[in-house]
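User: Design a sequence. Structure:
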């Protein structure tokens, strides 16, 4: 996992990295709605998904694909680092919008919080890959494909919409004892060309498929 200092730096940058989310059309659906307090990490501990105790962590391998059947996402995954100004990079604004994995976080299936980002809108190109992220519910499946041929399946434990000024650094980047996933995009009302909030999906490992021998 990343060192605590690195997590704090990345999380501070992440609080503002999706300020524009590519601009363009209004966020679709219910992206401005928050979930009940009982779904929020730090308020009531989410129950481990069925199979989580038997799902062993995977070796480090870069994610190359992401599927979220409940919201129609099936996307390649690119690697993201830090920009020159210290903010976390975001996927480029293109018509073949993709999700991106923050490479200073664990890879999906490793112990710790693996972080993936995506746009909610991509300017004149229309909807972004994470446009319906806020519609996910506890229990929905998230599948990640890894470079070495392994796969890690996660189950959503919570969905939060938070003001960017109140980004929950500890909840997103804090140490955890199991493999978890964080998906992040913009949400809430538009203020000029920016969105006021971030949508954050929290998920825990529920099953794995090892790399072929």
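Assistant: Done.
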């Amino acid at each position: 996992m990343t060192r605590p200092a690195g997590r704090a730096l990345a999380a501070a940058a992440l609080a503002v990295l999706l300020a524009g989310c590519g601009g363009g059309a209004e966020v679709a659906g219910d992206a401005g709605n928050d979930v009940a307090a009982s779904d929020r990490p730090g308020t009531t501990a989410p129950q481990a998904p069925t199979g989580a105790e038997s799902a062993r962590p995977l070796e480090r391998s870069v994610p190359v694909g992401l599927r979220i059947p409940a919201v129609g996402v099936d996307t390649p995954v690119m690697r993201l680092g830090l920009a020159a100004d210290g903010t976390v990079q975001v996927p480029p604004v293109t018509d073949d919008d993709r999700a991106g994995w923050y490479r200073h976080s664990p890879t999906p299936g490793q112990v710790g919080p693996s972080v993936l980002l995506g746009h909610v809108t991509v300017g004149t190109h229309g909807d972004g890959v994470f446009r319906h992220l806020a519609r996910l519910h506890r229990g929905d499946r998230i599948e990640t494909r890894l470079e070495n041929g392994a796969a890690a399946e996660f189950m959503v434990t919570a969905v939060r919409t938070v003001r960017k000024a109140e980004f929950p650094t500890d909840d997103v980047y804090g140490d955890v004892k199991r493999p978890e996933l964080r998906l992040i995009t913009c949400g809430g009302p538009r203020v000029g060309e920016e969105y006021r909030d971030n949508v954050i999906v929290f998920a825990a490992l529920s099953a794995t498929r090892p790399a072929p021998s």
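The first strand starts at residue 63 and ends at 68. The chain is about 10% helix and 35% strand.
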